[in-house]
From TrEMBL:
Family, similarity comment: Belongs to the damage-control phosphatase family. Sugar phosphate phosphatase III subfamily.
Catalysed reactions, semicolon-separated: beta-D-fructose 1-phosphate + H2O = D-fructose + phosphate; beta-D-fructose 6-phosphate = dihydroxyacetone + D-glyceraldehyde 3-phosphate
Record protein name field: Damage-control phosphatase ARMT1-like metal-binding domain-containing protein
PANTHER family to which the protein is assigned, alphabetical: DAMAGE-CONTROL PHOSPHATASE ARMT1 (PTHR12260)
Damage-control phosphatase ARMT1-like metal-binding domain location: 20-359
Domain of life: Bacteria
Reported cofactor(s): Mn(2+)
Pfam families, per the entry: ARMT1-like_dom (PF01937)
GO biological process, one term: DNA damage response
Length: 394
């Protein structure tokens, strides 16, 4: 197996996330919500712990999730530099520590208060969301073109989540590249359209402007008979800044239902689907695990195995799907996901180093067009490139 991604290398993308993006996020959370002195002190302590010389604090043995994190490897990493442990684990544990600092899991008035809610609400209420919903009025009349438009909307909705903007900034995103670095869309639609209706799992990534087109895509699958039900996998608690929870999904359904006619129709149908069991909201604890899906528990494996297709949205889910490892980019996607219990597709804009399934010609073209100064090729992390990959499994 290729080595796991860490933040050890100077100038690397993971190191920048751990030592720059995470401290910036702590300060942003502190500004967005008027936390009391004890919570602000805890945030300050976490800020010190995430400095270049800061180390991972030991687990409180009395914490409600101490047992789970011991199973997820915490004893191996306590006392080590954040940049020395697997990047996926370090990121996940950072968000666990951030929630602890603001009292999300503890007793008292701050229990269950999402520290990312102010940003999520602003995104969902923004003018760009209005524009996206208005665009549903102008969908193509051709069924195939409508399918493609809604899939692309779901794909590119993942382009710039809130956490990504902390380091890139809106001005640094550039224009999206319309030619995908890998495109299995035709194979995905063929799989969705074959064999009659069946359950489809949709593993969500970000809330707000990304989750809206995901929900509209779910509506399309249900209305066209490709899916008998859609199981929408969400996070059981706030995670990675803008990751979607059940509360976020309900807020999106409300926003859709209050939009222009096409959006409102989708929102109202989906609300009815929830009440009648065709749109199932699920929040498995493993959705917030610092582990690859290859280590998923049996009940989650059974869920994916029963699906006609599982759609994995976003960069984090991609890293967990293929394993957060330094794969040669030409490694076949089907090889990296061979453990998966059924057909699986990845819809992802590229915002981290990990990628598989590229042809040698595509890889050469991308590497030659960017990163010629010897730095890491920015196409992997800039959020301007995307892919649709599919494996039939089995």
């Amino acid at each position: 197996m290729p080595p796991v991604v860490t933040g050890r290398a100077a100038g690397s993308f993971p190191r920048g996330v751990l030592l720059k993006r995470h401290p910036a996020l702590i300060e942003r959370v502190g500004r967005a919500t008027p936390y009391p002195p004890d919570r602000r002190a805890a945030l300050g302590e976490l800020l010190r712990d995430t400095s270049e010389t800061g180390r991972i604090a030991p687990l409180d043995p009395d914490a409600r999730d101490a047992g789970r994190w011991r199973e997820w490897g915490a004893p191996r990493y306590e006392g080590r530099l954040w940049t020395d442990v697997p990047f996926l684990w370090a990121e996940s544990f950072f968000y666990r520590e951030l929630l602890n600092a603001v009292g999300y899991f503890g007793p008292g008035p701050w229990r269950g208060i999402d520290p990312f809610a102010p940003s999520k609400r602003a995104e969902l209420a923004g003018a760009s969301t209005d524009s996206e919903m208005a665009a549903l009025e102008r969908l193509p009349t051709s069924e195939a073109e409508r399918d493609a438009a809604l899939l692309n909307s779901s794909l590119w909705g993942n382009r710039a989540d809130l956490g990504f903007r902390l380091s890139a900034g809106d001005a640094g995103l550039g224009e999206r590249v319309t030619g995908l670095v890998s495109d299995d869309s035709a194979r995905l639609w063929e799989a969705l359209g074959s064999g009659g209706a069946g359950p489809v799992c949709l593993v969500a990534d970000n809330a707000g402007p990304e989750l809206l087109p995901d929900l509209v895509l779910a509506d399309r699958l249900l209305r066209t008979g490709r899916a008998s039900s859609v199981v929408l996998h969400l996070k059981p608690y706030p995670y990675y800044v803008s990751d979607a929870t059940t509360a976020d999904a309900l807020a999106c359904l409300e926003r859709l239902s209050a939009g222009p006619p096409a959006a409102a129709g989708a929102g109202q149908r989906l609300r009815r689907d929830v009440t009648e069991g065709r749109l199932v909201l699920r929040a498995h604890p493993f959705s917030c695990a610092p582990l690859a899906y290859a280590e998923m528990p049996d009940d989650l494996r059974d869920d994916f195995a029963s699906a006609k297709v599982t759609l994995m949205k976003g960069d984090l889910n991609y890293r967990r799907l293929v394993g957060d490892r330094l794969w040669p980019a030409t490694t076949p996607f089907a090889e990296a996901t061979s453990y998966f219990p059924g057909p699986v597709a990845a819809l992802r804009t590229l915002k981290s180093d990990v990628v598989t399934g590229l042809t040698p010609q595509t890889l050469r073209r991308l590497d030659e067009s960017e990163g010629s100064d010897g730095s890491a090729a920015s196409w992997r992390t800039s959020g301007t490139h995307a892919l649709v990959q599919f494996s039939a499994g089995g």
